[in-house]
């Protein structure tokens, strides 16, 4: 995770241009090669697909912000429903039973959802809003033809949560 110099402990990233951080964030494994700089860099979704919890911890521990003063607007990228059923005779190998490459999307979605659940336990409802949507269809990261569909879903999600966003930003 790239961090600006808001803490004297952060010395590694102070001179990293924003374009390099963005390029590294676009280096999603299974789709793109890592970005090469001093290190091999890739999308932070590998460990924090929903970085909200990391941000709250940094606000508390590094900036000394009281948890009661933290407000989080978390923006997701959507997640596809995944159903495996309960067939005990299924071949549960990675390529067959766990739906191969779809399993990576499933794990990333679980990680993002667990962060959401932790924040709901940690923060009061007026401190936290998560914008996300669930899809009945796969959400391909590398298919530009999905842009209009994603914009439509984002608009619907924003409209549905607009009052909660207003309250969050005005508190």
List keywords for this structure.
171 residues; mainly alpha; two-stranded parallel ribbon; 39% helix; 9% strand; globular
Which band does the percent of strand residues land in? 5-15%
Rg measurement, Å: 18 Å
Taken in chain order, the helices and strands follow as HEEHHEEHEEH
- Mean pLDDT over the residues: 86
Q: Give the helix level as a range of percent.
A: 25-40%
Biggest sheet, open or closed, and with what strands and sense?
2 strands, antiparallel
Helix/strand/pairing class, anyone? mainly alpha
Strand order of the largest sheet: 1-2
Strand element count? 6
What is the number of helices?
5
Low-confidence stretches: none
Q: What is the overall shape?
A: globular
**How far apart, in Å, are the first and last alpha carbons?**
28 Å
